[in-house]
Amino acid sequence: MAYVAVSGGEEAIEASIRLLDYYRSGTQKDLELEALAEKCSLLIDKVMSEAGLYARSYAALALKQCEGSTEEAVFLLRAYRSTLKRSYYTNTVETEQMRVTRRISAAFKDIPGGQLLGATYDYTHRLIHFADAQENAADLYERFQAFLEAQAPQRIQTYTRVSDMLKEEGLLDTYPEDNTPPYDVTEHLLEFPAPRSARLQTMTRADTGYLSGLAYSVLRGFGQVHPTVGELRSGYASLEIPYPGKDGESIYLGEILITEVETFHSASDKDQLKLASGYGVVFGRNENKAIAMAVIDRELEQGGDYAPQDQEFVLMHGDCLEMNGFISHLKLPHYVTFQSKLDAVRKTRGREEHGER
Questions:
Q1: How many Cα atoms occupy the beta-carbon half-sphere of 340 within 13 Å?
Q2: 39-67, pLDDT tens digit by residue?
Q3: How buried is residue 233: exposed, middle or buried, by Cβ count under 10 Å (0-12/13-18/19+)?
Q4: Using one digit for the tens of pLDDT, what is the confidence trace for 218-277?
């Protein structure tokens, strides 16, 4: 957890905190948490992913409290999460069984089960809809509620992975089966070399922009160039915990919305007649982050001289709390250290003016 120190008079600090409420008081209209959670869902998903806590209403409250600052909202959620008791560990989530809302492949046109476009801004014209400024939210809600009620219930359809086709042909490299419990980065310090489970956990909580920037550097030539999205799927995954005292039975807790990506890459060994893969999964609908995570997953597995291939560089600099906390602390008093630097410059200038070395 990044540190943020505060120094100054008590009255000045209290006045500064009161000013935060002033900046939130610019209108008599309240920002309802339900409206924020439902109408800014992509922002909520981003905050939950970087905080490592799936709690939509709390993410909305954190954003309201800190004027929409994602970094501060993540800080608040992380701090709250650290106070929660961990009672159970869920069973391993089988994402092949997820209730899919979107599923595409950039590698194949025809995939088993077909491609499902779902909701995406990829095909929009990116023009501002000025009419939305007068949008009637109640009418919009009622219209789609009526639409949903008119739909005939359908049996949930599950989809096999696109990568399974390549594995069956022996064209895609596979990771060896490992039954070792995942490394929990929230309970243990990160050590290097880090196991893959620790790398994936760290990246799924990393800053979205940071991961995207690293992945972009890979595409520009600093690593294995131009991977292909083998499959991207968004949907709801069920969470279950073991039934106490009853082997083989589980208790259903609910479901969470996730985005999962598998990328295909050229193998590092030119003589190896197989493709390699990368994997990414994040809370909510955050496709670019999941893709970037999959790209960097492969880079870290490959290793090399570039920054996206260096475990310590990638994993130690992407946490938005550590990143922003350390940068933020530069605003705080550094009187002693700066005077020391200034004295050193003055002494050097003085020696040069008198012809000394």
A1: 4
A2: 999 999 999 999 999 999 999 999 999 99
A3: buried
A4: 999 887 678 999 999 999 999 999 988 788 889 999 999 999 999 998 876 665 678 889
Instruction: Collapse the DSSP code of 288 into the 3-class scheme (helix H, G, I; strand E, B; otherwise coil) and give the result.
Output: helix
Spatial strand order in the sheet of 275-283: 99-104, 228-242, 250-266, 275-283
Q: Which of 120, 321, 121 is nearest to 210 (CA)?
A: 321
What are the distances in angstroms from CA 330 to CA 42, 325, 344? Answer: 31, 9, 20
Q: Is 268 exposed, middle or buried (0-12, 13-18, 19+ CB in 10 A)?
A: middle
Residue 324: which residues within 8 A CB-CB, separation 6 or more?
A: 2, 71
What is the model's pTM?
0.88
Reduce the DSSP state of residue 104 to 3 states and report it.
strand
Please return the burial class of 128, using the count of CB atoms within 10 Å of its CB with bins 0-12, 13-18 and 19+.
exposed
DSSP per-residue string spanning 252-276: EEEEEEEEEEEEEEE-SSTT--SEE
Task: Mention every residue, 6+ apart, whose C-beta is less than 8 A from residue 55.
Answer: 48, 77
